[in-house]
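REQUEST FORM: STRUCTURE PREDICTION
Request ID: SP-0412
Submitted by: Lab K.M.
Chain count: 1
Length (residues): 130
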Amino acid sequence: MTGTESIRIAVHADVATACRAARQVAEQTGFDRTRSYQIATAASELACNVLVHGGGGVVTVRAVTERSGVELLAVDHGPGIADLALAMQEGYSTTGTLGCGLPGVERLMDEIVIESSAGLGTTVRASKWL
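STATUS: Completed
RESULT:
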């Protein structure tokens, strides 16, 4: 495994692959087990969102050597997020789930940036620093 892994998210099994890649890159970067699993959980949430809401896409996990951390980049070309502020509220869901995906990623990671355009898709960049 290198310091960067890109996983195409097309089926549910790909979510587990993204989760494993995130954990491995985090451990290689120097995160302890707890923080590595937090990063893996965030990657799982992002990959699920890419699959369920975006119809598939890519999750890239990257070791950030210049600042010592891990970056997750989730990109889809789905319908986009209609109301980002609402989507970031705990418990809000458009699919009948618990609605803790994006708010959970925000809690687990140190930084999160979301760009979404109607009809063009969504990009989420989340970083965790040592």
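NOTES: The mean pLDDT is 90.
Reviewed by: T.R.
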